[in-house]
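ugh ok so i messed up the first submission bc i forgot one of the chains. this is the corrected input, ALL of the components this time, i swear. 776 residues overall. if the numbers dont match what u have on ur side tell me asap before i send this to the collaborators (the ones from the other lab, u know who)
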Amino acid sequence: MGGQRGRPRSEQARVAVLEAAGDLLLEGGLAAAHVEAIAGRAGVSKATIYKWWPNRGAVVLDGFLERVRHSLAIPEGLRTVAALEFQIGELVALFRDPRIGSALRGIASEAQSDPELARAVRERWLAPRRAVTTAVLTAGVAAGDLRPDLDVELVMDQLYGPLYFRLMFGHGPLPDDLAHRLVNQLLHGIGHQD
Amino acid sequence: MGGQRGRPRSEQARVAVLEAAGDLLLEGGLAAAHVEAIAGRAGVSKATIYKWWPNRGAVVLDGFLERVRHSLAIPEGLRTVAALEFQIGELVALFRDPRIGSALRGIASEAQSDPELARAVRERWLAPRRAVTTAVLTAGVAAGDLRPDLDVELVMDQLYGPLYFRLMFGHGPLPDDLAHRLVNQLLHGIGHQD
Amino acid sequence: MGGQRGRPRSEQARVAVLEAAGDLLLEGGLAAAHVEAIAGRAGVSKATIYKWWPNRGAVVLDGFLERVRHSLAIPEGLRTVAALEFQIGELVALFRDPRIGSALRGIASEAQSDPELARAVRERWLAPRRAVTTAVLTAGVAAGDLRPDLDVELVMDQLYGPLYFRLMFGHGPLPDDLAHRLVNQLLHGIGHQD
Amino acid sequence: MGGQRGRPRSEQARVAVLEAAGDLLLEGGLAAAHVEAIAGRAGVSKATIYKWWPNRGAVVLDGFLERVRHSLAIPEGLRTVAALEFQIGELVALFRDPRIGSALRGIASEAQSDPELARAVRERWLAPRRAVTTAVLTAGVAAGDLRPDLDVELVMDQLYGPLYFRLMFGHGPLPDDLAHRLVNQLLHGIGHQD
DNA sequence: GTGTAATCGAGACGGTACGTCTCGTCTTCTG
DNA sequence: CAGAAGACGAGACGTACCGTCTCGATTACAC
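and heres the new structure output, hopefully the right one now
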């Protein structure tokens, strides 16, 4: 059934583009990662980039994800609270790197005017992290560590939302113990305890 | 004390620019609110715009803030929980308007590459809302409704962060009862209650 | 030897720009030949124009020269005096066309604030004409028609200078027989003949 | 009848404008003599300038003429040839000053797109000089120094044209002895003398 | 091996927004 | 009420980046 014809796609070019995009994005932010610069640094032509990616946002997202590929923390053998703190802490650590923070802000920014990119960000950046946390929360409920009637999605947004909020708007810091404080406060609630 | 000299700034022009910027932003998103379009619709020259605003982002933010000037909900005569739900609910209602949501996303997007605009967004959009909530929280503590040891900033980010998170990334809806659920969940905590 | 790389320059675009620039310049003078108008009429983007020409002046000069490409009169088989009159006459005829006169005035005007354009005008408009006249004068001396001690450059300026002077300042007409009168008067001198 | 009413025109302002215009023009060329700069340096408002002059060209011309007011050489007690050389020499000397040359080029340039300015240049700059030379030439004919059948206008253009030609196009120098060589060559003609 | 077909580097192109500049007009307050 | 101050509309300038296109030069696989 139809063996492929013609010159196959150059793996080398693909990798070079992703590295160039990631480098430029991390070094100079989104503005520095314009297509011509990516192509130039990758030793690749713009046409090649646009052949395999629909637009700049897609390239930059791929380059970014390649750079942070190993950042998806899978907590193992930890109790519920520790697991939550661990995973959130990993994200805080990531966001604290100004280069990565800036890159992610840039990508989120680009996604505002590109629904397809927005979808990709959700599916390839957010979803995996949320899946892990969903598992932790479900297990936590099963283990009796968490209330059985909690709203998983909302919990995640109350744990991660503050991070992204501060990242995007810069109105507050991302201190080292932020993960602990987030989990702790949500865990015990802020209502008066009698 | 130096009376003013020269022709005073045209209030009419200022208002026309803000209205044009706001209209275009709400109608067509950030992309539609380019400077020439704003100038054209306002019956004003580009030079006048650039005389009073440093760049497009600043104009658009001003236009937007003018449009939502009355959206700052001041809860009066409400108990702590109701006050929180009220104010967050107002923001949810605002964000649910796709035109306003899109506008705010656009502005946040623009702010990623313009630190001055980012600062303005913090000071003129976020800060007033946070001030109100800060007051509510402080009063709530004093009234014994809330734990005295809560982290005010963090509480606000756990209440508002999810909204902005969902607004910016679109991974979850903004249902009508979101304010209630946010407050409720944070109030009582998600830990198992014995 | 060194095959060309990349997409070759579009000859069509180049020609369209020159024609548009020439047309606009001749139809409406320098003011009408602004870059956006040239780009629009040529069906070309501004970026393409600025890729190949450093500024408006350069485009307009090229467009003009293209229009008058065939105006360089080479006198053949004429005796010295007739040859001079012929070549000068050609220029007079050109200058008498108000569209061409206006165009050339515009270009000279632009060149006052653009040394590079001034150089181009000298090299591409003046020099070729002066080369022809230099040859005529040199031959005229050799043939014994002209004084052997004449200053070639000065002769040319006394023949052509009046034309450009009247063109630029408009203080005198450019009658049909101007070439003849210029040559005649310079030939015989204005001193009293004993 | 009817003594004038209101505040009379400030002579001081008029002079300050002319001096500022002249200074700027001579210091930085036409580009530096923009209206705001003139007004600023003169301590005068733009409106005042536009009240008394129709446009920038007119101001600049006036400023320039004020600066060179005393440059109109009236040869007295000289024989025809010496008188011609004297007056042309004065102009050569003027043109050799790069600041004045640049200023005059700028004005001529501006005049290409402003017929009214062109007229003013003719009447107030060229005409007086031509009047003097006309007188010299007429006297020269009467004295028997010059051919009685010469074309006065053409003679002037063959004497002055080369100066303006070289000034405007920069294709040749303006050496010290240019006046002498111009007069000499035109006087004796370039035809072979038998 | 030779043909065929898709890929590649290079880079020109149309489109479109940006922010800057100067001109000449106007509006207000001050002396 | 003339004039300084300076805001304003108009509109051209040159720059930047996007995504598309057109070349000629490379590869691989198929025959």
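quick check: Chain D touches chain C through 51 residues (CB under 8 Å). that seems consistent at least. Chain D is about 70% helix and 0% strand.
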